[in-house]
Amino acid sequence: MKELKHLNKYLYKYKTHLIAGIIITIVARIFLLFTPRYVKAIFSTIERYMNGEITKAVFRTELLHDILVIIGAALVGAILTFFMRQTIIIVSRYVEYDLKNEVYQQYQKLSLNFYKKNRTGDLMNRISEDVSRVRMYFGPAIMYSINTITLFVIALIYMFKDAPKLATYIIIPLPILSVIIYKLSREIHRRSTIVQQFLSTISGFTQESFSGISVIKAYGIENKTAHDFTELAADGKHKQVSLARVQAWFFPMMVLLIGTSNLLVIYVGGMQYINGTITSLGTIAEFIIYVNMLTWPVATVGWVTSIVQQAEASQKRINEFLKIEPEIQNTVTEPTDIHGDIVFKNVSFTYDDTNIQALHDVSFTLKEGQTLAILGKTGSGKSTILDLIGRLYDIDQGEITINGTPIENHNLNTLRSHIGYVPQDAFLFSDTIKNNIKFGKSDATDDEVVEAAKNAHVHKNIVKFSKGYDTILGERGITLSGGQKQRVSIARAIIKSPKILLFDDCLSAVDTETEEKILNNLKKILIGKTAIIVSHRVSSAKNADKIIVLEDGKIIQEGTHDSLVNAEGHYKDLYLKQLSKTE
Ligand SMILES: Nc1ncnc2c1ncn2[C@@H]1O[C@H](COP(=O)(O)OP(=O)(O)OP(=O)(O)O)[C@@H](O)[C@H]1O
After folding, report:
1. Predicted pLDDT of residue 581
2. 381 lines ligand 1 (CB under 6 A)
3. Rg of the chain (C-alpha set)
4. Which of 52, 226, 546, 550 has the most CB atoms at less than 10 Å from its CB?
């Protein structure tokens, strides 16, 4: 129960609902227990009438009274049972909602490294599957526990008062029933976890094959993929059948145990009636109803135990994530001033998951309003520099300052809100083009959206779609070309009008003519802003105020376009190569 302690704050938060639910549950059970008592009363009325102890009129009145009490009590009990579910089960839904939000907010705070170390499926499982299991602890587990305790205590008091020996015989099989159901529930849980894992695997497989359908078709491997799927599905079939086999035991076991208990009541009760230990057949009828009423709650003891164990295991998995401190800490609460003077002083950085040293002793200065272009072979550390400016990672050595203040002394939210980032792989959400652009500035007007799209040179493409800016992208809609995606992603960054703009090789999929037009538009936009353009093309770099060339994380050349084309080295070679290609 140690892990479930985390949920005590929610027990406290919804205490009023819970206490109301508990009281309603207790009262509902008290009313439902009227039935066996009054069935016994009816039997004894019949016996008294048959023995001539009461007249027909009295018999009728008493019978009518008892029947009305049974109907009334059952009605009140049923209404209260409805409210019992309305309170306790609803609380469990509230807790589920709160817990999901808590986990999601924690996910949002965690750094990129966390996402690299954990599989997406696992993250999704903890927020859906695990939270649902914890909800079962809050709802059904609490409800059935109170139910069982109340029924048991009240019924046992009546039973021992009426016929102690018969009561003892009857309660003997109940713990056995509880243990059997517990064992069965555990086995059902074990096998359903296996089925759950299988379902995650098969949905992962299908998702991947549908996303990569063009590659599958291009390589003509549809049959192989279908064969792999069939094998996977066959394995799943065995797992599902094995689960169904254990589940099939559940109700027969219940029926068998209820039947056995009923027989026991009739046999022992009958013997006691014959030898005079109990005086009315009504007691036997009353006990039969108790047995039937108690069997399910007693069975739930086993079930609830297994629910609590599952909830504990799930909460443990949730707590593991909730306890993780984000690697990137925002230590400054007040907003800080960001203008765009960026300085890298002997910066070195190693990715701790791969141990790859991506930057070695990198230094450069970028004044507010200047543009820096970074060139270099793939894997030379260009994107890493951009990630460090957005403080997606903290550096190992050296210092990065923005406006003279070390980056870690800036408010993280202010810093990121002043950065417009266009990643290498443009990621667009399954939403309209307009909303994808407005992602950078949620309160942007339609004119601003169009203006940004024009500057990113994608407006003409967008208006050609029948729904224009309201065209849905992604899984539910159309697929943009690589170059169109990149340009929508640029529009998203520039609409924000941030102080710092970071372009990570984001013109690689557009032709040089379009590149030229976009760069021309950017010239106006970048006035007064600091920009870093990562590229493989000299054409993207040539207008920058400063250019650095990276190799294996080290700066090997630094200067302006003019100075670099006149010096021997990587930049000049690249320039000549790309010049001859264009010619
Ligand atoms: N998240 C990461 N975790 C571990 N290693 C990484 C990560 N990102 C990059 N690396 C490694 O760091 C080195 C520099 O990568 P980076 O992405 O900065 O290069 P790049 O110059 O931008 O390359 P490209 O031009 O191909 O985009 C590479 O060796 C890469 O494998």
Report:
1. 65
2. yes
3. 36
4. 550
What CATH number did the domain enclosing 223 receive? 1.20.1560.10
- Ligand 1 contact via 82 beta carbon (within 6 Å): no
* pLDDT at position 349: 94
pLDDT band, residue 261 (cuts 50/70/90): confident
Determine if ligand 1 sits within 6 Å of the CB of residue 535. Answer: no
Q: What is the pLDDT of residues 267-281, one digit of tens each?
A: 999 999 999 888 888
423 Cα to the center of ligand 1, angstroms: 13
Query: For 14, how many CA atoms within 13 A lie in the half-sphere containing its CB?
Result: 22
ipTM: 0.95
CA dihedral 509, 511, 517, 522 (to 10 degrees): 20
Query: Is residue 348 a contact partner of residue 397, using CB atoms and an 8 Å limit?
Result: yes
In a domain, 241, yes or no: yes
Claim to verify: residue 346 and residue 287 sit in the same structural domain: no
Whether residue 380 has its Cβ less than 6 Å from ligand 1: yes
State whether 160 and 37 are in the same domain. Answer: yes
Helices (H) then strands (E): counts for the chain = 24, 10
Alpha helices in 323-397 (DSSP H): 382-389
Is residue 140 located within the same domain as residue 192? yes
Q: How would you class 461 by CB atoms within 10 Å of its CB: exposed for 0-12, middle for 13-18, buried for 19 or more?
A: middle
Does the C-beta of 378 come closer than 6 Å to ligand 1? Answer: yes
Name which residue sits closest to atom 29 of ligand 1, judged by CA.
379
Residue to mutate (ligand 1; options 344, 351, 378, 505; most atoms within 8 A of CB): 351
Domain count, the chain: 2
* 482-495 and 446-455 helices, crossing angle to 10°: 130
Taking residue 135's Cβ as centre, other Cβ atoms within 10 Å add up to 23
Q: Domain limits at 207?
A: 3-322
In the block, residue with structure tokens 């264009």 = 582
- How many Å apart are CA 411 and CA 417, to the nearest integer? 10
